[in-house]
Sequence to fold (256 residues):
Amino acid sequence: MEIIIQPTPEAATAIAARLIAGLIREKPAAVLGLATGSTPERLYAQLVDLKLDWTKITTFNLDEYVGISPQHPQSYHSFMWEKLFRHVNVAIKNVNIPDGLAKNVPASCEAYERKIAAAGGIDLQLLGIGTNGHIGFNEQTSSLASRTRIKTLTPQTRKDNARFFGSEEAVPHHVITMGIGSIMEARQCLLLAFGKKKARAVAEAVEGPVTAMNPASVLQLHKKATLIIDEEAASELKLPDYYRWVYDNKPEWQKL
Ligand code: PGA
Fold:
């Protein structure tokens, strides 16, 4: 894993934006795996400002709440259109987000997986991390081989997300999420984490054992996983100076 520690979320986001912009310029028909939540908001704003050409880009979002319509203000459909898609020239037909209103959830999840495969797989999967180490909505003890499927949110995640819904009761109990196995097939994973409350989950993911108790720890097995985090999220790491040393001494051609 590559760990990049930056003084602030702004500095961390700027590197992530450069990395994604580089991919879009180099591969105009790239397939991007996208994430929601507060962590990538700034990143999407920066990508919009870069005025990239999204016409051939295909996107797959990690997850969506079950039982709320795409028009619901807290749906991840709404989030993505609001924060990114309506500001760039992406083709609607190339945007994919799990269907939270699917009548046949397993069939819809299988179709989502088939669509990712038909698009040639995901070039870069953007990820946040939950305070419990979840990636997508793969909560603790999710199978590390899991595919897109329905999941029940933990009480902690519902609490964490209550801020978006106004109250905890309003947070749906179920979501559809790409699985950990699906995420691991992306050719590159880029995880962003900011703030003190992510520090424990980040430290366990990077330096703890690979375990379904911290789903993000599976990224230790990914051949190209990059974590870009701020000082606060890095504050419980055992080897922060080593990660800084590696980043500062990257060969010129490898610099982001
Ligand atoms: P956040 O959520 O970006 O809102 O902190 C991250 C996550 O739960 O994956």
